[in-house]
Design goal:
Strand content: 15-25%
Structural class: alpha/beta
Number of helices: 4
Number of strands: 5
Radius of gyration: 17 Å
Order of helices and strands: EEEHEHHEH
Largest sheet: 5 strands, mixed
Low-confidence stretches: 1-6
Shape: globular
Helix content: 25-40%
Distance between the termini: 35 Å
Length: 169
């Protein structure tokens, strides 16, 4: 039990997702990232990837690298603001191949086509800065930032990240 007025150690929970070759003109994928500090949404992003990914694994891995970069930056920012040690970062991804690639450097021969800058994710995992775990596609909150969704799914995800329609209040 915590003493009155004592804050628990903050933690960052991130969700990283990607579509695969979603842009029909240039076949680049879209990265979606959402971060929570505790239960509070602190940042989200949706951005076209700078490369053409050759597989869904590569697209998800590139998205994971972007999410890891953002998570490490947020962790350092919170450390500076609160005067604490680095905040732990937990990143949830829905692609098991990309997760395996981030944890197992032995797969390097099959990933040589992925630019070395995206192996930042692997480095963060090896150093213990980011913990990567699997989450099912139905629970992937970053899904709404990667593609068009049906109304029901969009409203479900919007509610899950805590965004409310101010006209309904």
């Amino acid at each position: 039990m915590q003493a009155r007025g004592e804050e628990p150690n903050p933690f960052l929970l991130g969700f990283s997702d990607s579509d695969f070759a979603g842009d029909i003109e240039d076949r680049k994928s879209i990265t979606g990232v959402v971060y929570f500090l505790g239960n509070n949404l602190v940042t989200w992003t949706s951005q076209k990837q700078k490369i053409v990914a050759l597989s869904s694994c590569a697209a998800e891995y590139v998205a994971g690298a972007a999410a890891a970069c953002q998570g490490v930056w947020l962790s350092r920012l919170i450390e500076d603001l609160l005067g604490t040690k680095e905040v732990s970062v937990r990143l949830l991804m829905d692609n098991k191949s990309a997760i395996a690639l981030s944890k197992n450097p032995v797969q390097h021969d099959r990933s040589k086509h992925i630019d070395t800058r995206f192996h930042f994710l692997r480095e963060c995992v090896e150093q213990g800065k980011v913990e990567v775990e699997h989450i099912g596609t139905t629970d992937q909150l970053a899904d709404m930032f990667t593609k068009a969704l049906g109304r029901a799914r969009f409203l479900q995800l919007r509610k899950a990240i805590g965004v409310v329609d101010v006209q309904q209040i």
